[in-house]
Amino acid sequence: MAWGAPRARRKKGRGGPLVLLAALLIGSAALRVALEAPPALARSSADRPAKMDTEPAGATKADLQHTLSALQAREARLQSREAALAERLKALEVAERAIDTRMTALEAAEESLRQTLALAEVAAEDDLTALTDMYQRMKPKDAAALFEEMDPEFAAGFLARMPAEAAAGILAGLSPTTAYTVSVVLAGRNASVPRN
User: Fold this and answer.
1) Distance CA 12, CA 126 (A)
2) Does the predicted model carry a pTM greater than 0.85?
3) What pLDDT is recorded for position 1?
4) Residue 97 is part of which domain span?
């Protein structure tokens, strides 16, 4: 315990000069403020005008009236433009709604057309299938007489849909020139298909 007491006293002794130095600095600052503040405040108040004029120097009532009228006219023009823009905005909104309605109707019509085309395609395919079945059930000699009168591409289309045996019987009944032409059309039908 004897050792702890002197240390505590030493620490107290060190704090004394710091406190004294801080007190001197604070006193110096207070003295400086007290001596320099009143002249600085007087200078600052002297720089400010004593009274603010409500009218600019040299302005007459006529000048002020003219400026006021110009500002009012400008405000009226701005309000007019704002009203015109509001009208345009309303017109654009109406046009946009009309376009949306037309687009919806167009999409519905397109879907209806797509369905109609699909039905027509199925119906045409059904008709071709029925006609092909009819031709292949005919006697080859009778069918060959009909195929002789057909356009070669049209005839080739039917023959391509038939079983090979029925198509061969009809092709054998055709004249050599017609049989050759139809064969060339059949051979060239897939010539333009890309190959790997």
Assistant:
1) 116
2) no
3) 46
4) 63-121
